[in-house]
TrEMBL record:
Superkingdom of origin: Bacteria
Catalytic activity line of the entry: tRNA(Ala) + L-alanine + ATP = L-alanyl-tRNA(Ala) + AMP + diphosphate
Record has Protein biosynthesis as a keyword: yes
GO molecular function: alanine-tRNA ligase activity; aminoacyl-tRNA deacylase activity; ATP binding; tRNA binding; zinc ion binding
Species of origin: Chryseobacterium soldanellicola
Record gene name: alaS
Residues where Zn(2+) binds: H564, H568, C666, H670
Function of the protein: Catalyzes the attachment of alanine to tRNA(Ala) in a two-step reaction: alanine is first activated by ATP to form Ala-AMP and then transferred to the acceptor end of tRNA(Ala). Also edits incorrectly charged Ser-tRNA(Ala) and Gly-tRNA(Ala) via its editing domain.
Principal location listed in the UniProt entry: cytoplasm
UniProt KW keywords: Aminoacyl-tRNA synthetase, ATP-binding, Cytoplasm, Ligase, Metal-binding, Nucleotide-binding, Protein biosynthesis, RNA-binding, tRNA-binding, Zinc
Cellular location(s): Cytoplasm
Protein name per its UniProtKB record: Alanine--tRNA ligase
Length: 867
């Protein structure tokens, strides 16, 4: 049975049981402040469990792309070292929202595994929650009784809270769970040791394949448990492990989920995969084929590699794959990008984002490979220099600070530093390195540390967003909670009528004021979490249940929504000018400026930028009225021509924003008419990543300020130049400046000629050799010319010139060719440069060094006289 057939059978089975089959949510989470990535199948249904949204159906099934590389669920370090851990994996799941519970969930799982997939019953074991006295949780007797009708009691195992009580995170929906384990060992191995002894003991052939979670509690911030309003079922079956079981393999990597990728790596690297766990080459191949899946899906879902947040995680995964292939597969050129085509052929039919975004994914990965391989090359030079310094200091241990700097600042893999050091008979200061790493983690943790208390619920009221229609509203606080972070103590509030737009869709959250006749609080930010619009205020009202007046900062909102509306016009104009391949890949919309990332593989020309600006401003001047379609079916919006952004998760009902021919699905705030935007001005165009261009621009008040600033500058220039024709006056100045430069260069050459004659006569005889040590104020170019001439004309000579031109210390050393075997210009300049707190280098015949300490030139001069 192929992996495609296994996946389809799962979905077909649950469809036959009345489940709605839904597509996978994006692997990258954009509107959940608690998670970067979908790390389990239940992530996209979290709001259903918490009661914030109504499920689209009481029974749902899907296969969800998941990523576990950070936070509580982190499998990165295990990947490649065993047969079954992965960064990106598929989670097959069936869900019940207040419908069926333990009995049916257990029956469905057993029937599918044993009758549909045909797994022998004697190979299966199940676990149930044994209870936990510290939390007043009893043994899950119901699950035990239901399992008894399917499997012998000696195969039902009690499991502790760690293994059999599933929690989403520090807080949130949770409940007891029942795991299903499969024993894939040979009959001979089973005869020696019972599978009962190996369940949940990390045996590579006795693995958990499915987890049935019975959601019935909510974990609060104070760690207490409360009953959920309804009982739910949340199951997750590891697709890769299931394929291993059904295809009779002992490793996930031996299934057809991975073998096509492995075959391509073998072809490109010339290395043969043997499947040996401890073999570094095989570990590297497993790392590469795992990581290329994670990175490809993340990029396809809209997350580009970067230096922060989710982008940093993706870059780290990719660089780990490049590092392993560089060290153990001898791949010194980019090649991972060539695996994308294989992955696309394999999974594209079920995950169309890979098909549609294939070119972009390939180009981004190739660019990242090229960049990181250069980092490795530059790092190797730094490592060699560090090793040389360590040897010269008669030490056998590379200092931890420098090794950590290589890793942290330059991105050079620390394990590669270890390998190179060991080849030279050296080690690194492991304890010191780990201490530096811990310091960094503590710094990072301190920066992001935040203690969030439980919600305090006040009077039950509806919680509505009214910000599309008004920026001021009478309102009540429906709930609040305290938040403590490095900046102090704050309170998050949810309002019955909130005019504050929550950060989302690239647009910043609103700020403003929450006040009444008695007190006033500043609204510092507004975000959305689990369906709730949450505003952060700088204190707790004395009477939190009183009537308040919520007021959005009108100026910032006006400018933000002007910038948001103009991004829609910009998107349309870019597609008209550059082509329909242009797609939005990210945006930032604030009151001061907008940033718009889009797919395009070439730098835009000045003509293209001017045409885009012209088209956008023409639309603004047309005074196009906003047409807003709230809560329309998504298919109706698509039929109307609305553009949906790839990597976004849309519900069944959406909001469509239309300005003439521009139609997009969007939840942000917008101007009522394009004329309110004022004027649109592109301020920069640059590369955001391979295949991604970035435009930054302004509109509204900021555009007015920009042109007023230009007008002021022109007026001031006109006054300085005493001319209204500023352009012609500047051209004249440039011509005069060029003429003066020519004269100065001629003067320098004349001065240098005069110096040469004096310097030739200033050499001091040192035995059978000649030494010149001279101070000068000549510039570096003139000194270089003179030194090259002198070292040719004066035999058996060393020439040392110390310059203070432009108040910057500079040392230049020349060694005549006949002394090159016994004197090294680079070594001499390196020694002298210590006196000016600098460094430099060159070749045996010529070297230079610059520094910071001008006063040190005198010490360098005295030191040079003694050579």
């Amino acid at each position: 049975m192929t992996s495609q057939e296994i996946r389809q059978k799962f979905l077909d089975y649950f469809k036959s049981k009345g489940h709605l089959i839904v597509p996978s949510a994006p692997i990258v989470l954009k509107d959940d402040p608690t998670l970067m990535f979908s790390n389990s199948g239940m992530t996209q249904f979290k709001d259903f469990f918490l009661g914030y949204k109504t499920p689209t159906a009481p029974r749902i099934a899907d296969t969800q792309k998941c990523l576990r590389v950070s936070g509580k669920h982190n499998d990165l370090d295990d990947v490649g070292r065993d047969t079954y851990h992965h960064t990106m994996f598929e989670m097959l799941g069936n869900w019940s929202f207040g419908d069926y519970f333990k009995k049916d969930a257990i029956a469905f799982a057993w029937e599918l595994l044993t009758e549909v997939y045909g797994i022998p019953k004697e190979n299966l074991y199940v676990t149930i929650f044994e209870g936990d006295a510290s939390e007043n949780l009893e043994r899950d007797q119901d699950a035990y009784d239901f399992w008894k009708s399917h499997i012998s009691e000696d195969r039902i195992i009690n499991g502790n809270k760690k293994d059999n009580f599933w929690e989403m995170g520090e807080s949130g929906p949770c409940g007891p769970c029942s795991e299903i384990h499969v024993d894939l060992r040979t009959p001979e191995e089973k005869a020696k040791v019972s599978g009962l002894e190996l369940v949940n003991n990390d045996h590579p052939q006795v693995v958990e394949v499915w987890n049935l979670v019975f959601m019935e509690f909510n974990r609060k911030a104070d760690k207490s448990l409360e009953k959920l309003p309804q009982q739910h079922v949340d199951t997750g079956m590891g697709f890769e492990r299931l394929c291993m079981a059904l295809q009779g393999k002992s490793s996930n990597y031996d299934t057809d989920v991975f073998t096509p990728l492995i075959a391509k790596v073998e072809e490109l690297s010339g290395k043969k995969y043997t499947g040996i766990l401890e073999d570094e080459k095989d570990i590297a191949i497993r790392v590469v084929v795992d990581h290329i899946r994670a990175v490809s899906f993340a990029i396809a879902d809209g997350q580009l590699p970067s230096n922060g947040g989710a982008g940093y995680v993706i870059r780290r995964i990719l660089r780990r794959g490049i590092s392993y292939s560089y060290r153990f597969l001898d791949m010194k050129e980019p090649f991972l990008f060539e695996l994308v085509a294989v992955l696309k052929n394999q999974m594209g039919p079920f995950f169309p984002e890979l098909e549609k975004q294939g070119k972009l994914v390939t180009e981004v990965i190739k660019s990242e490979e090229e960049s990181f391989l250069k980092t490795i090359e530059n790092g190797l030079i730094r490592v060699e220099k560090l090793i040389q310094q360590t040897i010269e200091s008669n030490s056998k241990v590379l200092p931890s600070e420098e090794v950590f700097e290589l890793y942290d600042t330059y991105g050079f893999p620390d394990d590669l530093t270890r390998i190179i050091a060991e080849e030279k008979g050296l080690t690194i200061d492991e304890a010191g390195f780990n201490a530096e790493m811990e310091k960094q983690k503590l710094r990072s943790k301190a920066d992001s540390a935040q203690k969030v208390y439980d919600w305090v619920t006040l009077e039950e009221r509806d919680e509505n967003f009214v910000g599309y229609d008004q920026i001021e509203a009478e309102t009540y606080i429906t709930r609040y909670r305290k938040v403590e972070n490095k900046d102090g103590e704050f309170y998050q509030v949810v309002l019955s009528n909130s005019p504050f737009y929550p950060e989302g869709g690239g647009q910043v959250g609103d700020k403003g004021v929450l006040e009444n006749a008695v007190e006033s609080f500043e609204v510092l930010e507004t975000k959305k979490e689990n369906g709730l619009i949450i505003s952060l205020i700088n204190g707790l009202p004395k009477d939190a249940g009183a009537l308040f007046y919520a007021k959005v900062n009108a100026t910032e909102r006006k400018n933000s929504q002007a910038n948001h509306s103009v991004t829609h016009l910009l998107h349309e104009a870019l597609r008209e000018v550059l082509g329909t391949h242009v797609e939005q890949k990210g945006s930032y919309v604030g009151p001061d400026y907008l940033r718009f990332d889009f797919s395009h593989f070439n730098k835009m020309t000045e003509e293209e930028l001017a045409l885009v600006e012209e088209k956008v401003n023409a639309k603004i001047k047309e005074s196009i009225a906003l047409q807003e379609f709230r809560n329309i079916p998504i298919q109706e919006a698509i039929d109307k021509g609305a553009m949906a952004l790839f990597g976004e998760k849309y519900g069944d009902s959406v909001r469509m924003i239309q300005f003439g021919s521009s139609k997009e699905l969007c939840g942000g705030t917008h101007v009522k008419n394009t004329i309110e935007i004022g004027h649109f001005k592109i301020t920069s165009e640059s590369s955001a990543a391979a295949g991604i261009r970035r435009i930054e621009a302004i509109s509204g008040d900021k555009s007015d300020e920009y042109f007023k600033g230009l007008e002021k500058q022109i007026t001031e220039l006109s006054q300085l130049l005493k001319s209204k024709d500023v352009v012609r006056s500047i051209e004249k100045l440039i011509e005069e400046n060029a003429s003066l430069k020519t004269e100065i260069e001629a003067f320098k050459k004349e001065k240098a000629k005069g110096e040469i004659g004096d310097w030739k006569n200033a050499y001091e005889q040192k035995g059978d050799k000649q030494l010149l040590v001279k101070k000068t104020s000549l510039d570096a170019g003139s000194v270089k010319d003179i030194v090259f001439q002198l070292k040719k004309e004066i035999p058996t000579s060393v020439t040392i010139i110390l310059s203070n031109a432009d108040d910057k210390p500079m040392i230049t050393v020349g060694v005549s060719d006949d002394l090159a075997s016994s004197y090294q210009a680079g070594a001499i300049v390196k020694d002298l440069a210590k006196e000016i707190q600098g460094g430099g280098g060159g070749n045996p015949g010529f070297a230079t060094a610059g520094g910071k300490n001008l006063d040190g030139l005198e010490n360098a001069y005295q030191k040079a006289l003694n050579i």
